[in-house]
Design brief:
Blueprint (H helix, E strand, L loop, with lengths): L1 E4 L2 E4 L8 H8 L18 E4 L2 E4 L12 E3 L6 H13 L9 H14 L5 H8 L9 H16 L1
Parallel strand pairs: 1-5
Antiparallel strand pairs: 1-2, 3-4, 3-5
């Protein structure tokens, strides 16, 4: 199974049912993608597949064939950098476990919706859980990232 990972071609020859999460963490040594719940409910394992958020813990490698996967380690571009900057400016991170998934979800959202309302931000980020409950800072950071990305 061939796919692109953070801009580089990767060939995977293992079990087609193996979750992408473990290929990223164990085979590729990209540990920014976190294991949270293991049932695609929390969002800690969120990566971007062809620019859209995907839960790596429940995505079998058979579904990755021919796609482009971006992890937190490979996030770049105007919107991605704006999100990272906003996260730092507003000191969003507490424990940090969910943050790579939060950042990737926010980046995909702002790429699709560059000038969101607060309600739209909350709806877009609702599926990503934060056990430290920094939701108000996450919402503020997504709004700030939209401003930064506008220039």
């Amino acid at each position: 199974m061939d796919f692109t990972l953070n801009g580089k071609k990767v060939a995977y020859t293992g079990d087609a049912d193996r979750p992408l999460l473990w290929v990223l963490r164990e085979d590729q040594e990209l540990t920014g993608t976190k294991f949270g719940c293991g049932v695609a409910a929390c969002g800690a394992c969120t990566v971007l597949m062809d620019g859209s958020p995907a839960r790596a813990c429940s995505t079998p490698m058979s579904a990755v064939e021919g796609t482009s996967v971006t992890t937190i380690e490979g996030l770049n571009g105007k919107v991605g950098e704006a999100v990272r900057t906003a996260w730092r400016e507003l000191d969003v991170v507490q424990c940090g476990w969910c943050q790579s998934g939060q950042i990737l979800t926010a980046t995909a959202f702002l790429t699709e919706k560059p000038a969101p309302t607060e309600a739209e931000i909350k709806t877009a980020m609702d599926a990503n859980l934060c056990r430290c409950a920094t939701y108000h800072r996450i919402t503020a950071a997504v709004a700030r990232a939209a401003d930064i990305a506008k220039g």
